[in-house]
């Protein structure tokens, strides 16, 4: 498309999940209104719009899973379900006047850096733009990962991923196979177990599961938090503080997890009386190495007579027969994949082309790395919200997002201070130094004790989790250090020689 046909904007934000909406709010609070939020779907919400499976809920307490600048005193439960979280995000959108900035049905197809004009060319399914700055908040939990299983294409029944739930298919009376035992699967199993005729769960690795102490938030509590907002802030602060105190168990003293393991095993023993089933559900790795799951109804559902646990991963599909790696066979009318997302090989990275013609995916082929989890070398004025090594194992991602929004705000201020046309490109030395620091700290963590998890990339490196407290991350992203960046300016046009005399000019 010709340059004149592209609308120019100062900032393009990709995605309207918590990261994208947070970025939009922060930009407006900084006085920046020349921006758009590019969303491939037809509404806001990100992963909380896409995941609508039975039982979908958050495993972070409600009062910690919300923006600090947009408290919600009316959460109905201590752990909120998907409908309430999505409603909260719609509320944030309206409260902060974000609707005029939203561009729905606009999937980003290509981002290409123009080194001459120092801006990004943004191509989407809903229109094309140029942007001085791009904020990618596409999120790691956006694109489902479905394993390549031999024979899956020949399965005669229905197949879908947990994040693309088929609500037109009635599971009642059906034989259903659930593949995976992650955070979604442990909610789906008890959600559908009462209505299916037979449920077969394929488990590659048993997860550690702790009780989920969920309860309704009383009317008195909601009244108090509405009338006295400081009480809600105090509640949030206590929840945050408890989780900050737990971080050392994950990052420096994994052996302390044995105490929590006893609680998890007690939870398992109370719910599952069958010693054979209990043995299959007992993890053989340190608690915390994989994501710790919260559920009070997962184990009871597995103990029901219409549920079979296959302690092996799905290896092959032969018609309507599912075959596990250990040879176990099961018949199914439907297959539900609870196999997670493309976290360490983000699809958006394949669509971003930087200064040297390389895509972000190519730059990250040996592992994701970004300065302070935000800026990748060779991709000027491109910031990632929930970037490499920013995920958390025990607390709310909203805390990380807000820290990165602080960094975004200062990034924009620095560009203003530089004046004129300018761009900031993270120095490779700064990215490498930050990454070495993170990976060095990772060596002592519970995530490096030997289990197989979605935190690890194809090379076995943990490029996903932040190995510290949220307070540490906030200090590290409070402001932009210009010494860590190269300041780019437009290339100078070649100077034309000026004729010395009118006669020379006429020649």
Automatic annotation (TrEMBL):
UniProt keywords, alphabetically: FAD, Flavoprotein, Monooxygenase, Oxidoreductase
Domain of life of the organism encoding this protein: Bacteria
KW Oxidoreductase (keyword) present: yes
GO function term, MF aspect, one: monooxygenase activity
Keyword check for Oxidoreductase: yes
Pfam family, one: FMO-like
InterPro entries from the UniProt entry: FAD-bind_Monooxygenase_sf, FAD/NAD-bd_sf, Flavin_mOase-like
EC number: 1.14.13.-
Family to which this protein belongs: Belongs to the FAD-binding monooxygenase family.
Database matches in PANTHER family: FAD_NAD(P)-BINDING DOMAIN-CONTAINING PROTEIN-RELATED, L-ORNITHINE N(5)-MONOOXYGENASE-RELATED
Protein name (Swiss-Prot/TrEMBL): Flavin-containing monooxygenase
Source taxonomy: Bacteria, Bacillati, Actinomycetota, Actinomycetes, Kitasatosporales
């Amino acid at each position: 498309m010709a340059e004149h046909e592209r609308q120019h904007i100062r900032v393009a934000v990709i995605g309207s999940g918590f990261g994208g909406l947070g970025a939009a709010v922060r930009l407006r609070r900084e006085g920046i209104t020349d921006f758009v939020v590019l969303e491939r779907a037809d509404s806001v919400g990100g992963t909380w719009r896409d995941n609508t499976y039975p039982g979908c809920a958050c495993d972070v307490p409600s009062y910690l899973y919300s923006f600090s600048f947009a408290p919600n005193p009316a959460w109905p439960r201590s752990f909120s379900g998907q409908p309430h979280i999505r409603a909260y995000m719609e509320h944030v959108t309206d409260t902060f006047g974000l609707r005029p900035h939203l561009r729905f049905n606009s999937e980003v197809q290509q981002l290409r850096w123009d080194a001459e004009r120092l801006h990004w060319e943004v191509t989407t399914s809903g229109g094309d733009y140029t942007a001085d700055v791009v904020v990618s908040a596409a999120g790691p939990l956006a694109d489902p990962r479905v394993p390549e299983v031999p024979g899956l294409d020949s399965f005669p029944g229905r197949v879908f991923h947990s994040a693309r739930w088929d609500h037109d298919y009635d599971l009642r009376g059906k034989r259903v196979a659930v593949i995976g035992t992650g955070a979604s699967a442990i909610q789906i199993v008890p959600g559908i177990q009462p209505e299916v005729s037979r449920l077969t769960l394929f488990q590659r690795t048993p997860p550690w599961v702790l009780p989920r102490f969920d309860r309704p938030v009383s009317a008195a509590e909601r009244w108090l938090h509405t009338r006295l907002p400081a009480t809600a802030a105090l509640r949030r602060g206590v929840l945050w503080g408890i989780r900050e105190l737990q971080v050392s168990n994950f990052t420096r003293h994994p052996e302390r997890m044995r105490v929590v393991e006893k609680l998890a095993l007690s939870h398992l023993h109370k719910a599952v009386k069958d010693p054979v089933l209990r043995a299959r559900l007992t993890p053989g790795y340190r608690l915390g190495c994989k994501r710790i799951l919260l559920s009070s109804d997962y184990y009871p559902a597995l103990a029901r007579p219409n549920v079979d646990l296959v302690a092996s991963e799905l290896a092959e599909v032969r018609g309507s027969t599912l075959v596990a790696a250990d040879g176990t066979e099961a018949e199914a009318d439907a297959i539900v994949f609870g196999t997670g997302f493309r976290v360490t090989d983000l699809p958006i990275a394949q669509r971003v082309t930087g200064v040297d013609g390389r895509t972000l995916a190519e730059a990250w082929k040996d592992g994701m790395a970004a300065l302070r989890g935000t800026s990748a070398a060779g991709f000027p004025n491109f910031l990632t919200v929930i970037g490499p090594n920013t995920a958390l194992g025990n607390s709310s991602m909203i805390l990380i997002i807000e820290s990165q929004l602080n960094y975004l705000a200062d990034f924009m201020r620095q560009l203003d201070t530089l004046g004129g046309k300018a761009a900031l490109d993270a120095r490779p030395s700064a990215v490498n130094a930050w990454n070495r620091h993170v990976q060095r700290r990772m060596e002592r963590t519970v995530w490096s004790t030997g289990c197989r998890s979605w935190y690890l990339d194809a090379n076995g490196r943990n490029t996903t989790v932040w190995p510290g407290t949220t307070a540490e991350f906030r200090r590290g992203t409070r402001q932009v250090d210009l010494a860590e960046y190269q300041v780019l300016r437009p290339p100078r046009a070649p100077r034309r020689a000026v004729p010395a005399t009118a006669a020379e000019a006429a020649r």
